[in-house]
């Protein structure tokens, strides 16, 4: 019931409130609610015991109706059990869940929903709001599936795998920075997980990767279904990293977090977007100087050099500058021998008897690849592009590419010879791979690393050639004409190396069937080569591949379809459609290749190939041969029935279609025209 303003706030109550306010100056008195008349008009009210000024001016009674507020909703919480062997923190909160609609973006559902206790800071909270329940089974399933990128030396220096967390309590007991890295590992594991919380529940959900590869050629539905969970975990890791000093402090764990975030955001990042997390990672590495602190990160190890080579696989091809010449002294160990000597040593080792325990030195090869990328990056700098083309540097880079390709072939041959005698037991270090898997990954990186230099060089030479005009004999000098001809030669040579690199990538994928080896290495690797191949086809430069173009496009399209199990984006769908269109066009042109001695082969193909369309009115005519006449391809194409008669020109052409047995020269008969063959206008209109 409405109450009088004077009844709501009496003088006694007012004096009591003033006394309380004077006793506790830190507590601010609450403002009385607005009166009913001001609330109805939605105007500012100045409540007073005698009535607000608006009601006094209107000479109406000032009344206020109290609002009945509901009590706060109780929040359900689940206790977290402490895992044995780990210290229990002072405050271990647990995940809280909320329903998430389909319209919510993955980043909107990740907010910190509960306040921590006074004894804990914001980094010690585990309150998350995810589109799935973060339980022990999910943590145990995701972290071991993080993949090759999480074998980085900085990741192992952080202590994430000492041992790896297997429950929610283990995750809560980690240090704040290691917990961020654990969320990054879970996001990477979500790209391969078969857990129902990630891919949903369904009858055809695989339980292992082997079952997933047998589901069919197109696995993009799984990539679309897991995208929400992957983005939620990735955004949760980024949110926690922003809340701390990850991007400021130069520690091994913070460098590993930036390295992992660069990999995670490369899944759906446009190719021309800046790689800010990679730049932060490299700045941390420059401060750490791994060569000077070998006890923390083994800079001379094969893992470190292979990770640097894998980072360069798609970075420079997208125009992202990575390392500099000064970084080589602090990040990369000197290989000890030049490229020529190392390539010759690998070739000599292939001719020697095989030793099961002696693996090839992949570290030296990876270091040579990194140094080649850095040298090429100096040529692609804006200062170098403003100068005339340094042909000596171009020739040196082309020679380096040839040597790196020779090293790659030798290392792949070494690995193929060691695989049958390698044991499948676990390695005696903190990496989740067996010896066979480690050898396969080394073989895959060896087959891929040399290709990182090819595309940047080709794009640079093409852009320089496009900026120059064609030589003119009347105005240009002889030296400028020959300079343009040499540049054209460099472009063709770089294009040949690019096609060879593409075939090497496809061969490496066919040798390594497991999806994780070529999806978790570099997400931009395969889309980058698909873009290159489509661009060369549109420019008319794929004639050098000849008959190999169709199979290469078909293999690359099938690989992208298989890649859809891990992640699927609209850009990948567009690339698959373009590659399939190239395959169909190549098959069509191969079917229409006409021998020069028989021009009627094309017409015979139209009549016999079931893929070509026939109009409904021609189906009946073509299905009934002429009575008393020999069944020939020309007769079947003519579309004649009992109501039509053959003109002389059509009869002559029908005899010609029989081949050499007809005995009529090719030029002796009139040409086959629409008027000569009644009912065949549809065929000529199609031509």
UniProtKB/TrEMBL annotation:
Residues 66-123 are annotated as: Disordered. Coiled coil: none annotated. Residues 110-123 have a biased composition (Polar residues). One of its GO terms (molecular function) is zinc ion binding. It comes from the Eukaryota. InterPro entries: Zn2-C6_fun-type_DNA-bd_sf (IPR036864), Zn2Cys6_DnaBD (IPR001138). Residues 34-62 form the Zn(2)-C6 fungal-type domain. This is Zn(2)-C6 fungal-type domain-containing protein. It comes from Rhodotorula diobovata.
